[in-house]
From TrEMBL:
Annotated GO CC locations: plasma membrane
Keyword terms, alphabetized: Cell inner membrane, Cell membrane, Membrane, Protein transport, Signal, Transmembrane, Transmembrane helix, Transport
Domain of life: Bacteria
Protein name: Biopolymer transport protein ExbB
Claim: Cell inner membrane is one of the keywords in the record: yes
Entry's family note: Belongs to the exbB/tolQ family.
Signal peptide: 1-30
Stored InterPro entries: ExbB/TolQ_transport, MotA_ExbB_proton_chnl
Quaternary data: The accessory proteins ExbB and ExbD seem to form a complex with TonB.
Species: Commensalibacter intestini A911
Membrane spanning residue stretches: 93-115, 197-219, 244-265
Region annotation Disordered: where it falls in the sequence: 40-64
Broad class of the protein's primary localization: membrane
């Protein structure tokens, strides 16, 4: 009995402890699948936005080009188009006047530069085609281009010598008659070169005032509209006044090229006409010195003395 008692005494507690430990272990193992099963549905909704976010970003990126392509640029409410559409008849007429001035100025500048280049080229043609090496002036004139101003001057001098006969012309000596004819031809060439310069001078002096008139009228028109609306805030005043100031800018943009072009053409005309005057003086010396009538007159005067 004593041995059995001692066995039960020592073995029973050990068996109880092992049984309780096994029960606790089974309980924890049973709770872990339950927690895993309950945690997975909770984690799924949290993970769903993370998986949906790239799709939404891709849809937004793919939709962006269509919205950018379909969007139309907004019209500038304070540009030249708005100035034309919103302006009255006076503002539109002022704009048209300055546009005509600007187009006319550039047209005159281009045409006059081309004309000056032609006259300068004709002067070079005189030496290139050996004008002074011909037998007489008639042959010299024929070697030049038909549109050359130097041929025109030469032919006028030859014609003056040939037609110096008549009741009224006999009272004028040959030198004065030829000089007058050559200078008349030279003045004709100069008049052709200077045509249009008066227009440039007029545009250069009046275009700023035309633009200033448009500005004053535009400001008056804008302030009248603002007073009628009853709103004098900065955003209501700045736009119309800025549109009116564009008129002054257009006037200056019209006047500055006209003034610069006028000064440039006048300076080049002086150089071209100096070349033409020197040529005319040389032709006059040849016509007077090589004319038989002049030689006879000079010999008679020497004999009488």
């Amino acid at each position: 009995m004593s041995k059995r008692y001692h066995f039960v005494r020592y073995v029973a507690p050990v068996a109880f402890v092992l049984t309780m430990a096994l029960a606790v272990n089974q309980t924890t193992m049973a709770q872990q699948p339950a927690q895993t099963a309950t945690a997975q549905p909770a984690a799924a909704p949290a993970a769903q936005p993370a998986t949906m976010a790239p799709e939404q970003q891709q849809q937004a990126v793919s939709a962006t080009p269509f919205t950018a392509a379909d969007a139309k640029p907004a019209d500038n409410p304070y540009g030249l188009k708005a100035l034309w559409t919103g302006g009255d008849i006076v503002s539109r007429i002022t704009l048209l006047i300055m546009a005509i001035m600007s187009i006319g100025s550039w047209y005159v500048i281009v045409i006059k530069v081309i004309a000056q280049n032609r006259v300068s080229g004709a002067f070079k043609e005189v030496s290139r085609k050996q004008f002074w090496q011909q037998k007489n002036l008639q042959q010299s004139a024929e070697v030049l281009n038909a549109q050359s101003p130097y041929r025109y001057i030469t032919e006028n001098g030859i014609e003056a010598v040939q037609h110096h006969k008549g009741a009224l012309q006999d009272s004028i000596d040959l030198y004065s008659w030829v000089s007058m004819s050559l200078h008349r031809a030279l003045d004709h060439v100069q008049a052709r070169l200077q045509s249009g310069l008066a227009f440039l001078g007029t545009v250069g002096s009046t275009a700023p005032f035309v633009g200033l008139f448009g500005t004053v009228w535009g400001i008056h028109h804008a302030l009248s509209a603002i007073s009628i609306a009853g709103q004098a805030t900065l955003d209501k005043v700045a736009g119309p006044v800025g549109e009116a100031l564009i008129m002054t800018a257009i006037g200056l943009a019209t006047a500055v090229p006209a003034v610069l072009g006028y000064n440039f053409l006048v300076r080049r005309n002086k150089v071209v006409m100096d070349q033409a005057r020197n040529f005319t003086s040389d032709v006059q010396c040849v016509l007077i010195g090589g004319n038989p009538q002049t030689k006879n007159t000079a010999s008679k005067e020497s004999d009488a003395s």
